[in-house]
Write a structure and sequence with these properties.
Strand order of the largest sheet: 1-8-7
InterPro entries: Multihaem_cyt_sf (IPR036280)
Distance between the termini: 102 Å
Largest sheet: 3 strands, mixed
Shape: extended
Order of helices and strands: HEEEHHEEEHHEEHH
Keywords: Signal
Number of helices: 7
Oligomer: single chain
Structural class: alpha+beta
Length: 210
Amino acid sequence: MNRAVHSSLHLPGAAALLGLLCVAHATGCQGRDQPLGLRPALDTTPIASASIHRPDKLSGVATDKRDSLGRPIRAACVTCHSLRRPDALPTSTAELDEFHVGLRFEHGGLSCASCHVIGEQDTLRKADGALLPMRDAMQLCAQCHGPQLRDYANGAHGGMNGSYAGGARVRNHCVDCHDPHVPAFQPSMPVLPPRDRFVEARGAGEGAHR
């Protein structure tokens, strides 16, 4: 008798709970990732493509001559390499001559033959022996500099020019900032800002009136 009474006291609550579950199922509330009343997100604006700058360093070397603006005049690689017989690649910078005299080379344990191809100044060699045109030099750099490539792909390394009002986006090339033969940035010491004589004079005048 007591059991029947005890059970009957809980029947209304159980029925109410069952009713709530049915309503929730009918309205689609069972999916937490799809709140009731929210519509699917609209398509976003596609990301504009960006071209990669091709520096002059990939097709020539700087000479000691200057143009009217004081910039070094560059000589195209084909100026010499299309006329002279291809020589064996040097094993040290001491063997370099003409335009390449004084070249510094501090790039890991690499040598000239690690990247360059005899008689093909517009071609690079990857570690697996595959050949690349000079314009694709970034693929050569990416073989060893994976973290930098990852950051470059995500926009956190390298930088770019262009904006909504400034035209198409142009991303920097590796050699825009890094010398391929000495890629590490040279250490520098912070210096004080330049002195402004007008600011200093104004400060001195204010002090004189006090």
